[in-house]
Design goal:
six-stranded mixed β-sheet, alpha+beta, amino-acid biosynthesis, 16 strands, globular
Length: about 400
């Protein structure tokens, strides 16, 4: 696959940067606090190819079930996203609410309900206030536009515990572009994606390739962020292509650009994770397979003893060795090396340089674990377990 991308990712815009897309986010009254809570992204074409990747959680929210169903046709004209309620564990009535949402937006836009993707995020187990959501659809459609301000409003209205909106754009030197937004600050240990993300492109990429490259890009980016070990009921990443640039892009070239864009969104998600005080990168080197490298890194990322040590800026490599030893990964413990922020603190399964050489006092912590068991490697991003994380999640439902 082509690994070079002919333009840098920027954060000045998002889903409206590619030609053929409009978006907006408004206050519909779904959130009691009166903050923006309803977003619509519209694909004006001429192409309407789409692909999606969804949570692997067995408990799937109604909008996930709906969007999976409509995407079997491989196209979307629009996506509606609400914050302030997950519409998960709401039974047949919740699915009907999702269906009504798609039908109402489809009627306003003059398209079919089967061409509308639906996403929701918020508290699990509560029905959505349809008396507010449905009228809000007219307001958000009236507000649609293609400026950077419209893109930002769309990214803002999907936020729940996020502190800042997250968006990015990559404008390729050949004249096509990719833009997107993402939300997610907790319940992030995706086996597909992190919470909600919509990505748009004006490149022409046929639908089977859209699906393939999205899955590849998600596997290398969204699936490598693990904040707290919780895979959400609502995780969704949608990729929409308008083809408005008129430029047909080879799948490998498009995948490289999509992966770069998604990686930037994931870094923004990591930086805004609930209670975050440390940005932790865990790289496993020389594993037998890439899957084993990912598995080992994720065990460390999810281990509470490791995460509290990161919070304390404590170079407690013994906790990392313990976590790696619990991973479904083949290696010889007598060969294990662990480096923290450049300090080889564990060498050949035992004590390396003095702990004082591993300075973890800054924002960034770089963990490198060498298994000496093969040639595969992988990196997983995570955060620390802070007082603020516990406080925020203990108070969330109230």
């Amino acid at each position: 696959m082509t690994s070079t991308v002919q333009h840098q990712v920027e954060r000045s815009a998002g889903v409206t940067a590619p030609a053929g897309f409009r978006a907006a986010g408004v206050i519909a009254g779904i959130k009691p606090a009166g903050k923006p809570d309803l977003t619509v992204v519209v694909n004006d074409g001429p192409y309407d190819g789409a692909a999606g990747v969804f949570t692997t959680n067995k408990v799937k929210a109604a909008p996930v079930l709906w969007s999976q169903q409509v995407l079997t046709a491989g196209k979307l004209k629009a996506v509606v996203l609400n914050s302030g309620g997950a519409n998960a564990c709401t039974g047949p009535e919740g699915f009907q609410d999702t269906h009504k949402t798609a039908e109402e937006l489809a009627t306003i836009l003059g398209v079919g309900a089967g061409e509308i993707g639906v996403c929701s995020t918020g508290l699990i187990g509560e029905r959505l206030p349809m008396d507010k959501l449905l009228p809000g659809l007219k307001s958000v459609v009236d507000a649609l536009g293609d400026t950077p301000e419209h893109s930002l409003s769309a990214a803002t209205a999907v936020m729940t515990t996020d502190n800042v909106p997250k968006q990015a754009v990559l404008k390729h030197a050949d004249g096509w572009s990719i833009g997107g937004f993402a939300k997610g600050a907790g319940m992030c240990a995706p086996n597909m994606a992190t919470m909600l993300s919509v990505i748009t492109t004006d490149a022409i990429v046929d639908q089977p390739h859209l699906d393939h490259v999205l899955r590849n890009a998600v596997g290398k980016t969204f699936n490598r962020l693990d904040v707290d070990g919780g895979t959400s009921t609502n995780d969704t990443v949608l990729l929409l292509s308008s083809g408005a640039s008129g430029i047909k892009v080879p799948a490998d070239e498009f995948e490289a650009a999509l992966t770069a864009l998604a990686a930037d969104l994931v870094k923004q998600l990591q930086a805004d994770a609930e209670g975050v005080t440390k940005h932790v990168s865990i790289t496993v080197l020389n594993a037998a397979t890439e899957a084993e490298a990912v598995a080992a890194a994720k065990v460390v990322a999810e281990d509470n003893l490791c995460k509290t040590a990161f919070f304390a800026s404590d170079p407690n490599w013994g906790r990392i060795a313990m976590a790696v030893g619990n991973a479904p990964t083949a290696f010889d413990p007598a060969l294990l090396d662990i480096t923290l922020n450049g300090a080889a603190i564990c060498i050949a399964g035992g004590k390396g340089v003095d702990r004082s050489e591993a300075d973890l006092s800054g924002l960034e912590i770089d963990v490198v674990i060498d298994l000496h068991a093969g040639s595969a490697s992988a990196t997983v991003l995570t955060t620390d377990l802070s007082h603020a994380y516990v406080e925020e999640n203990s108070a969330y439902s109230s």
